[in-house]
Amino acid sequence: MIGVEMIRAAARRANGRVRQTPLLSSPFLDEIAGRRVFVKAECLQHTGSFKFRGAWSALSAMDEKTRARGVIAYSSGNHAQGVTLAARMHNTHAVIIMPSDAPALKIANTKALGAEVVLYERATEDRDALGADLAEARGLTLVKPFDDPFVVAGQGTVGLEIAAQARAAGIEKAAVLVPCGGGGLTSGTALALADEAPHMSVHPVEPEGFDDTNRSLASGRIERNPTLTGSICDAIITPSPGELPFPILRRLCQPGPVVSDNACLQAMALAFSHLKIVVEPGGAAALAGALFHADMLPEGDVIAIASGGNVDDAMFELALSGRDQKAAPNG
Amino acid sequence: MIGVEMIRAAARRANGRVRQTPLLSSPFLDEIAGRRVFVKAECLQHTGSFKFRGAWSALSAMDEKTRARGVIAYSSGNHAQGVTLAARMHNTHAVIIMPSDAPALKIANTKALGAEVVLYERATEDRDALGADLAEARGLTLVKPFDDPFVVAGQGTVGLEIAAQARAAGIEKAAVLVPCGGGGLTSGTALALADEAPHMSVHPVEPEGFDDTNRSLASGRIERNPTLTGSICDAIITPSPGELPFPILRRLCQPGPVVSDNACLQAMALAFSHLKIVVEPGGAAALAGALFHADMLPEGDVIAIASGGNVDDAMFELALSGRDQKAAPNG
Prior knowledge:
CATH topology of the largest domain in chain A: Rossmann fold
Oligomer: homodimer
C-alpha cells in the first residue's frame, strides 16, 4: 500500500534531478481572493509539468535490467514528455503511442525530446493491444499516468515540498487546491500532506462538465464523465478518477471547486501579470478556484498548484486578450 | 569598499524575505545555443524583478529610526516597485517620484503596492530638486537604483545563489550573462562570483545602440549613450554605467554581447515555450546573448540572468506573434 514512506523514498531518488519548484505569491492575487494565496509553480518543472516527477519516480525505481530495455507510455500530452525526458536522463529508450491525429507540434516535440513515437488510427486500431504487443515484443515496461504506485509517489513529492515551503513561509492552516484529472497528483499530494501538514485540507479542482472526481467523492463510487471533449483544460480531462488514486482521494480529500474555462483563462492572465509564470488552462484550474471560489473553502490561506504550462501561443493570447486591461504587468 | 562580505551580510538580512529564484534549463535551448544554457529566473522575484533584492538590502540595513521616517526613489519602473514593496514589508512609507507622462498603469500599480506617487512635469520641473526638497522636509532617505553600496550588495545575492546552484547542478566553467543598465546587478553578481566561483566569467549584455557599459569597458572610462529612447528594453536603458559599479565592472567583467530588440523578443518567446517564464524585453537580453551570440563567449556552459518580467500584454503578444510557429509549447 502506498504511503508517505514511498513518497519520501521517491524524493530521495529524485534528489537533484527533479526541480524543487518555488512557492510564489503576489499582493495583487491576495486582494482578489480576499486571503493569502500561494502558488506552487509546477509549470517550472522539467518538461513543463509535474508529470516528470512521476515518470522519474517510476524509472528510478526499476531494476537496471528492466529499465535498460526501455519504457512505453500512451499519451499525447504532459505524461509523454515526462516519461520521455526521464528515460533520456536514465540513458534508456521511450516509446510513446499517440493517435495519428495528435497535433503535429506535439508529435514533433516528443520526438525532439528523444522518444520513438508510434502512431495509431483511433478509428481502426486498438491502442492498448498495440501497446501490449510492442511491450511484449521488445520487453518494454508500461508507465501508466496515474494507476501506478511509483508514479503517485513521485507526484506526492510536490506535497512534501509544499509542507516544507509552507513551514518556511509561516503558513499554518491552508486549503491546498490541486488540478485533478486521474488523481495521481491529488492523491500523492494528499498522502504527503496528511503526514507532514495534517492541518491542511486538500481539494481536487475540475473543469465544469468534467467533474468526475468531485461527483465520485460525493457519491462514494467512481463516476464517469459523459464526454471527454469540449473543454480547453485538456491536461486534466480523464474518463474517471483512477482506481489506485480514488480510495486515497476518498479518505483524504474534501470537495473542491468546479471552474469554468473562462475562469481558467483569467487565472492564466493573472499568473502572467503577477507571478510571471506560464500556465496552461488545466494547470490554472486550481488558481482559478483559489481566486474565484474561495468562499467554498475552509478559512485560512490557499495554496494552489499550477500543475503545468504546456500551452500554445494561440491559447495564451486568448487568455491575455480576453481580459480587462486594468489587469496589470506588475509583480 | 563593497566586497563579498557586504553581499553575504545582505543575504543574511534577506533570509526568508527575498525569494531564492530557480535556475532553469531546457534541452531545446541547449540545442539552439550549441551548449548548456541555464537561466536564473529573477523575473520570479517579488515585484517581478531583481530590484526587490537591492531595495530590501538598503531598507534592512537602515537604522530603525531612519527607516521609520520613510524612503524616496525616482523611478517609473522596476526599482519603484522593489522599493515600494520593501518599504511595505518593513512597515514604512515609500514616496516614488515619477514623470507625469509615465504610463497610467505603472502609476496605478505602484500606488496599489502602497506607494505615495508624486508626479512631476519633465519639461518644467527639476526632478532632483523636487526629491531633495521632499526628502529634506519629511526626513525621507533616498534609495538610489545602483549608486548605493547596499543596493549593489543586495543585487549581489543573485551571484551567491548562482554559485550555490551551479555547484549543485554540476556546472563548472561558465560564462554568466547579465542584462546591464546602471550596472548594479552586474557588479554585485561579479563581486559574489569572483569570490565564490572564480572560474566563471561575467559579461554585461546591452541592447544595440545603448551599449554604454561595453563601450566604457573598452575605453576604460565612463561613456554615455547618445540617446535614451528608441529601445524596447526600457528596464536596462541608462545614460551611462553608474559611478559606484563601473570600477567593479572594469576590474571583474569581460566584454558582453550587444543584442537587437528582435533577438530579445525571440528570447522572450523561447522562454515562454521552454521555461514557462514571463520575461520583459530588457530582462531577456542576457538570454538573447546566450542563444544567439554564444560564439563570442568563452567555452563552457552559459548562465543567463532573466532579470525581470514586467511586460504588458501587447509587448508579450508581439514577442509571440513574431515567431515561426515551429517554436514549441514544450518544457
